[in-house]
Amino acid sequence: MSMPRGVMREATIDVGAIEDNVRQLRRLIGVEVIAVVKADGYGHGAARSAAAALAGGATRLGVADVTEALALRRAGIDAPILAWLHAPGASFGEAVERGVELGISHLDQLNAAATAATADRPAVLHLKLETGLGRNGIAPDDWALVCAEAARLERLGKVRVIGAFSHLSNTSADDDRAAVRAFEAGLGVAASAGLAPRLRHIAATHAAIGLPESRLNCVRLGIGMYGLSPFADRSSADLGLRPAMTLRAAVAAVRRVPAEHGVSYGYVHRTDRETTLALVPLGYADGVPRQASAAGPVRINGRTYPVAGRIAMDQFVVDMGDAPVAIGDEAVLFGDPTLGAPSATDWADAAGTINYEIVTRIGPRVPRRQVNG
Ligand SMILES: *Cc1c(COP(=O)(O)O)cnc(C)c1O
């Protein structure tokens, strides 16, 4: 199969898959969904992923930082957006003005949010409790005090606490259960302080699917909405999900070489027979991990081959034996395995990482083309 003429490399993004995945997960999980579109929608494009997730039934978006939230506003997205990771000393004027909800991890952030409020616009907040992950969040020892202060600021009309949240480690069901219990205790403390956060969320995709008691009344879904599985032992198809990103390139050169021919830097691959080499114009500058050299799978003309030798900055080689291949033929690195493509998880395994990193690091040199399958 050949690539469209003139296209060297591209990532197609199936927004229909994202919409279906969110709909499917919402049905399974049964509570409100915050669609997580940080890091440019895990490489899929933040605005298009957000729009597809909202169409699939998500009611709110989640990003790491306010800059990402404001970019979504500029792209015309007016759904609620929560941002939870802030620069030290950040001020939140523009966030409050643009209706960006803030995750609050300590008293200084609470005060900065209150300072950014205007007479007719309180800062809208989700208080984050640290429950064992060791990242951000209000320390358990400070929780009662911060809740009391938030309640006071709420009575003054400066803030509105609409959510409380935390984040799980996915270490084991027992570890996650302990964190859920710590969070529920924190909710009790918040209620005693006079807060009534409507949204209570602790689960991301892994726990939302695997630990029903963590669902509370809201979950934050990232990897699952893009159609990838966070489980080592369950595939996308097992979860009823369709991977949204397909990474592919047009074979850029074809060369017939004899046995003992070196391939790519360092000659870590040498041909063991007369064979055909196909050049694929994607490299580590595009986010194809160099760690997957001599291992990452590539689908060309109905067969899957490992990368031959080292992945370079812009390109790598596939050793195809006597299989037919022509310049312009499609080389698929990953996509939907039910259609024969390798998966992002296969690449993650080849590189010693996780599928999250594979899709998120696909670089800006790879054009994204939106499709709706
Ligand atoms: C990234 C992130 C998520 C989404 O996690 P997935 O495993 O991709 O579902 C949820 N919550 C927080 C705080 C995150 O940083």
Features:
single chain; alpha/beta; TIM Barrel; Lyase, Ornithine Decarboxylase, Chain A, domain 1; 2 domains; 11 helices; 23% strand; elongated; binds pyridoxal-5'-phosphate
Mind sketching the topology for me?
Elements: E1 9-14, H1 15-29, E2 32-36, H2 38-42, H3 46-55, E3 60-63, H4 66-74, E4 81-83, H5 93-97, E5 100-104, H6 107-116, E6 123-128, H7 140-155, E7 159-165, H8 173-192, E8 199-201, H9 205-210, E9 218-221, E10 245-250, E11 253-257, E12 262-263, E13 269-270, E14 275-280, E15 297-300, E16 303-308, E17 316-319, E18 330-334, H10 344-351, H11 355-360, E19 368-371
Parallel strand pairs: 1-19, 2-3, 2-9, 3-4, 4-5, 5-6, 6-7, 7-8
Antiparallel strand pairs: 1-10, 10-18, 11-14, 12-13, 14-17, 15-16, 15-18, 16-17
Helix pairs in contact: 1-3
